Amino acid sequence: GQCSSIGGQLCDYHFIRYEKTWEEAQKYCRKNHTDLATVSNQTDMKRLRSSTTAKPPYKAWIGLQENTPNIVWRWSLPGVKFNVTESEWSDKQPDNVDDQEICVRMHDGTWDDDHCSAKYKCICYDDNSSGETFHISTSEMNWTEAQSYCRDNYTDLISGVKQLEDFKTQRRKDAEAFWIGLFRDSYWSWSDGSSFSFRSWDKDEPKKTCAMTTSDGKWSSDDCNNKKPFFCYDDSVILIKKNMTWVDALYYCRDHYRDLVSITNQDEQLWVQERAKMASTPYVWLGLRYTCTLDFWFWVTDETVLYTNLDPDQSGDDCNVSGAMDRNGTHQWVKMIDDNYKFNFICSK
């Protein structure tokens, strides 16, 4: 998800030398720019660092903060929600001995928390298989290795109560213990509401509640009331939460901003889909249009459609077709045959 892009930048970083607390920095960025810096991947990291001429060592706030001191349980497979009412803990579990047990194993059908460095076989879930949905590893490994093993060879570690139920119906109960895809996460979130999971901690999971960059480019954490310089960013796309037809959305963007948004690469797709997630309609309009006379899609900003995320089922030769992005799922682009649908839309600034 990107501040960066090939064709132009979806956001610009600014290094602010004033020393402020995290909250003061957030207010300053929201007033003068878009927000405190959001970093979505390694490319952003590089751009963030190159936006300052300050000489190391300096430490500067970014927009990541631990919201709640409590701990959140998460499933490894993205999109599977943890539901506390469906949990199947063994008696007196989770007990989090020495505040160190943050990974979960299943034993006789119930769950225990354990040190992530402990070694067990693991259960992998395979989304794409026409045969077996679940696979048990032949060797024992720690939890992080188990997660990598499942992601490299299948889809992910078994995640969610439904998958576990399916697994149990396929097998007798095992006396053996297996890693499953449940782990404890302290809850960090971005100031602008993005859900990017990219993290670049220097060594260990952070002990304080606000994130900052360090001079080697990694992140550390500090007390939010300490004063430091900070990074803001300017977003060059904006979600408009008004319901309009595609043509009205096009004129609205051109009157108030630059144009309806175009997406020319994967980085822009990730950045735009973060905005789309916050829409109040199931789809959001993009600056994508189909010409039936010439039989191709084009962007209203005149870029050719080289990168595409069109839903493969969306072929056909209807005229007057516009493109929208699905707010949910994989955020594919879909063609809307009826131009009179009214959706939220995304403008480029």
TrEMBL record:
Query: Which InterPro entries does this UniProt record tie to the protein?
Result: C-type_lectin-like (IPR001304), C-type_lectin-like/link_sf (IPR016186), CTDL_fold (IPR016187)
Tell me the Gene3D superfamilies matching this sequence: Mannose-Binding Protein A, subunit A
SMART domains per record:
CLECT
Q: Which Pfam families match?
A: Lectin_C (PF00059)
Ranges for the C-type lectin domain?
A: 13-125, 129-233, 232-333
Highest taxon of the source? Eukaryota
Name of the protein in question: C-type lectin domain-containing protein
| Organism name | Sander lucioperca (Pike-perch)
The major lineage groups are:
Eukaryota, Metazoa, Chordata, Craniata, Vertebrata
